[in-house]
Amino acid sequence: MASKEEIINSFDPNGPGIAGNLFGLPFNPENSELLIIPIPWEITVSYHTGTAAGPEAILKASSQLDVYIKDIPDAWKLGVSMLPIPQELLEESKKLRELTSHYIARLENGESANPEDPLLKRINDASENLNIYVKSITQKYLKEGKIVGLVGGEHSVPLGFIRALSEQYDRFGILQIDAHADLRRAYEGFTYSHASIMYNALKIPAVSRLVQVGIRDYCEEESNVIQRAMGRVVTLFDEVLKEKLYEGISWDTICDEIIAQLPKYVYISFDIDGLDPKLCPATGTPVAGGLEFSQAVFLIRKLVRAGKKIIGFDLCEVAPGHDDWDANVAARILYQLCNWSAVSQQRLKNIREADRTVSSKIER
C-alpha cells in the first residue's frame, strides 16, 4: 500500500478529481487526518423531505471543486475522506419516515399529539439508537486522533457527536448557523426532533455557551428558552444582524462580537438553511433572509484566526433538488469547514500565520 507521501506526490491537484472520493482527493479513511461521517437520516422533518440524500449528493458534487485555497495552499494535502454511506441507516430512515409522515399529517389536520402513541415510542427509541450509534462512531475516530465532521441528514443527527465531545472536553461552546432556533421541546411529540437539537444539546453540562447566528424563524416557546438561559444562549437574530449592516457596522466588527461570546473550544453546527435560500432552495424549511456564502466563510475563518479551536462540526439539512446546486454549495461549505478546522488544530497553516512566523523571526 502506498504511503500518504507517495499518494500526495503522485496526485495532480490541478487535474480532474477522482470520482467517488470526497472533493476528488486521493485519500481513504486510513490515511486521512479528517474524516466525514455521513448520516443519511430524516424521520422527524416537518416540511419538505430529501435530506437523507444529502450526504451522497454532496459527495458526488464535491469532486468537481478546485481544491486550492489561497490562504491555505497545502489544504488538499491534509487528507480528507468520507466513510461509506451506511445503506442500512438510509433504509431504516425511509421506513420510519413513511410512518412519521402519516402521523404528522394527522397533527396538521387538527389531532393532538398523544404521548402514549406507540408510534412515538418507536420513533423516539429509533432516534436514541441513532444517537448511540453516532456517539460510538465519532468517539472511535476521535480517540484515533482524527478530526471528525458529520454530514446529515436532518439536524437532529449530531446529538450523539456532541455527547461524545462532552466526554473529551469539560467545557465547549456551540456556534450554530441556522434559520431556526431549534429550541423546541419534543416538537410534534418527537423527543429528538430536528427542531429540538439545541434544546437537547443544552442538556449536556459541557456545553457552556450556545451562540446562534442568522435565526429568523422561531416560536414563543423558543424565545422563552433563550430568555431563561441567563446568557448561556446568545442569539444573533438575522433581522438584528441586517439592521447593524444597514446602519454601517461592518461584518468584520459583527463577527468580532459573535466570536467574543464563544469559549476557546468550539463545535460548529451548520444548518444549510442558515444561508440565503437562493443558495439552498431545496432544503427542507427554507426561510427568506440569511447569510451569504462569503459571510459564513468569513466568520469561520475569523473564528480560527481569533485563536478558537474547532473540535468538531456538522453540516445538515442539505437536500438535492432538481439539479446539483444545493449539493454544490454544501460541498464548498464543507471544504471550508474541513480546512479551517484543521488550521485551528494546527494540522494546516494559513498564509497569515506563516507571514507572522517569518516576521517574528526577522524581528528577533
Concise structural overview:
With 364 residues, the protein is α/β, with parallel strands linked by helices.
What does this structure look like?
The protein has 364 residues and is an alpha/beta fold. The protein has a single domain, classed as Arginase, Chain A. The protein is built from twelve helices and eight strands. The protein has helices spanning 4-10, 54-62, 87-108, 118-143, 159-166, 197-201, 220-228, 238-246, 251-260, 293-305, 325-344, 351-363, and strands at 34-39, 80-82, 147-152, 172-177, 207-215, 233-237, 265-271, 309-316. It has an eight-stranded parallel β-sheet with strand order 2-1-3-8-7-4-5-6, with helices on both faces. Strand 4, helix 6 (197-201) and strand 5 (207-215) form a beta-alpha-beta unit. The longest helix has 26 residues, at 118-143.
